[in-house]
Amino acid sequence: MSAEIRDRRRIRHSPDDVFDLVTDVRGYPGFIGPMTALRVLEEQVADGSGELTAEARVRFKFVSERFVTRVRYDRASRRVDVSLIEGPFRKLDNAWRIHALADGSALIDFQIRYEFANPLLTMLLQANRERAVTYLVNAFEAEAARRYAQTGLDDAELTLQVPDAFP
After folding, report:
1. What is the pLDDT of residues 59-104, one digit of tens each?
2. Per-residue model confidence as pLDDT tens digits over 37-65
3. CA nearest 52: which of 71, 73, 75, 29?
4. Would you state the pLDDT for residue 59?
5. DSSP 55-114
6. pLDDT of residue 47
7. What pTM does this model have?
8. Among 15, 116, 134, 149, which has the minimal tally of Cβ within 10 Å of its Cβ?
9. Is 165 left (phi over 0), alpha (psi -120 to 50) or beta?
10. What is the sign, positive or negative, of the torsion defined by CA atoms of 141, 146, 151, 156?
């Protein structure tokens, strides 16, 4: 059974800083707890846009898994798309859309679609899937706060200016 989860949130950091954080895949094991290792297998980058292939190792409770993904990113549009090459999934795609808000802060749209090949993994994550995505996006937000200066106003209505990236 496949699942799709979305998260939309304003982050009080510049869109370029958020894009840099999302595309810094080598740094993920330092702030995404279940990710125990990550190595870039191949990378082609020009002018802040490109494609890379990365192998990640994750551990959740008593389960350890390895998977390989292709990450495509474009700085001009602040888009990041991730797709499965191999691993414990039948399907895995996720996408980040990072929008500039009028006050200099960022609005992120995050979407993940997945389906595990292993029924045990499906059951394990099914009960926690919303929490897992919230944990992931919270980890990025906390790392942005650690790395970058805060920007923007205390005005939550700014998010209404950007249409949903994944209608």
Report:
1. 877 778 899 999 999 999 999 999 999 988 888 899 999 999 989 9
2. 999 999 999 988 999 999 999 887 777 88
3. 71
4. 87
5. EEEEEETTEEEEEEEEEEEETTTTEEEEEEEESSEEEEEEEEEEEE-TTS-EEEEEEEEE
6. 86
7. 0.88
8. 149
9. alpha
10. positive
Q: What tokens appear for 114 in the block?
A: 């997945």
* Neighbouring residues of 117: CB distance < 8 A, sequence distance ≥ 6: 88, 89, 90
DSSP 148: S
* Residue 150 DSSP symbol: -
Give per-residue pLDDT as tens, 117-164.
777 666 666 666 677 788 889 999 999 999 999 998 876 565 556 666
Q: Cα(33)–Cα(8) distance, rounded to whole angstroms?
A: 22
Question: What are the distances in angstroms from CA 162 to CA 48, 76, 99, 102, 130?
Answer: 23, 17, 8, 10, 23
Helix axes 119-126, 129-147, angle to 10 degrees: 70
Class at the top of the CATH hierarchy for domain 3-161: alpha beta
147 neighbors 17 (Cβ within 8 angstroms): yes
Q: Which residues contact 96 (CB under 8 A, 6 or more apart)?
A: 22, 79, 80, 81, 108, 109, 110
